[in-house]
């Protein structure tokens, strides 16, 4: 069960085509980031747990 926080557009890391992303809050804590690229026929998703400080996220 997820609830959507944000929907927007970004660019595919492989083909640089514009695509849509969805950021969802995952029940129990954490975030799920979904990206679907039609040209690549691929779906990227990343799930992270909720943490006060994430070094990788802070650097991004
Ligand atoms: Zn792509």
TrEMBL record:
Organism domain of life: Bacteria
Lineage of the species this protein comes from: Bacteria, Bacillati, Actinomycetota, Actinomycetes, Mycobacteriales
Record's protein name: Uncharacterized protein
């Amino acid at each position: 069960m997820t609830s959507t926080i944000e929907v927007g557009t970004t660019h595919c890391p492989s083909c640089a085509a514009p695509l849509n992303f969805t950021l969802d809050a995952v029940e129990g804590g954490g975030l799920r980031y979904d990206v679907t690229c039609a040209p690549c026929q691929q779906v990227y998703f990343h799930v992270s747990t909720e943490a006060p400080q994430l070094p990788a996220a802070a650097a991004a």
